[in-house]
Amino acid sequence: MTLRHHFTDSPWGQLHYVESGEASAPLVLLLHQSPRSWDEYRDVIPLLAERFHVVAMDTLGFGWSAQPEEFATVERFAAAAREVLLAVQQPGQRAHVVGHHTGGVVGIELAAAYPELVESLVLSGVPWVDAPRRAEVQNRVPIDWVERSTDGSHLLALWQKRAAFYPADRPDLLDRLVADALRVLPRVEEGHLAVNAYVMEERIGLVECQTLVVCGELDTFSLPDVPALIEHLPAGSRFEQLLGVGVPSVDHDPAQFAAVIAPFIAARAGSTPGA
């Protein structure tokens, strides 16, 4: 499948996205975790593009998308995703939105704020963010932030911060994360901070579309939050566990990821919220 790169204008500057598949097929929007880029879905895209029109965007402030001066918020991430959807959707078409970690939180806000644009939702490895969590993480050690050094030691520091979440036999996956993180230093932590400030408990109730929650069985960061997500999502939403993977489930096992989410999306192509 051909992978096409595009930019579209937005109030914050240009937004970068890639697409593959037939434009007449059901539309799937892929939203990445922080501080990744569309590259997180690089190996998933061709698998989904056999059946769908796949669009993977760089979240506002990440990848090749514009970096606004304002501090990041989930609401602004979702508003930027709306701009991409408006650029690629056929008249009257709604998208099937897939979000991983930070991207899943953005997906919740996108579905809550712009329900007319979202047909269904896949939340992958998404944490439950409520008032107790916001209080808990206020003084937490940053996930990815490192101070740039003149001897390059910050590269090792960044690698070591994430190594525990990644399979030891796949250094290539960490290569890809570090490359994306370096592109956005020193604002590498803004996506995580935006998630931790998001008032999810007030917004998730506005989600109308059917939702699939997936999470890697080794994702100790988000797996405990699955019951809270299911409890607050529309009736009929369900959970599927991804075997043998943790936080980087999307790029660690793209075949499994695509195989789990594709039937859910296909079954809802053309459906209405609540169906």
Structural write-up:
The protein is an alpha/beta fold and 275 residues long. It has a single domain (4-135, 190-268), classed as Rossmann fold (3-Layer(aba) Sandwich). The protein has 11 helices and 8 strands. It has an 8-stranded mixed sheet, sandwiched between helices. The longest helix has 15 residues, at 74-88.
Describe the structure in brief.
The protein is α/β, with parallel strands linked by helices. It is 36% helix and 16% strand.
Keywords:
alpha/beta; 16% strand; globular; 275 residues; disordered C terminus; Rossmann fold; 11 helices; 36% helix
Radius of gyration: 17 Å
Q: How does the helix and strand content classify structurally?
A: alpha/beta
Which blocks of ≥5 consecutive residues have pLDDT under 50?
271-275
Give the CATH H-level superfamily: Alpha/Beta hydrolase fold, catalytic domain
Give the spatial strand order of the biggest sheet. Answer: 1-2-4-3-5-6-7-8
In whole angstroms, the N-to-C terminal distance is 32 Å
The largest pleated sheet is described as: 8 strands, mixed
Task: Report mean pLDDT, rounded to a whole number.
Answer: 94
Count of alpha and pi helical runs: 11
CATH class: Alpha Beta
Give the second-level CATH assignment, the architecture.
3-Layer(aba) Sandwich
Number of strands: 8
CATH topology: Rossmann fold
The coarse overall form would be globular
Query: How many domains, as an integer?
Result: 1
Please provide the ordered H/E string of secondary-structure elements: EEEHEHEHEHHHHHEHEHH
- Estimate the helix proportion, in percent: 25-40%
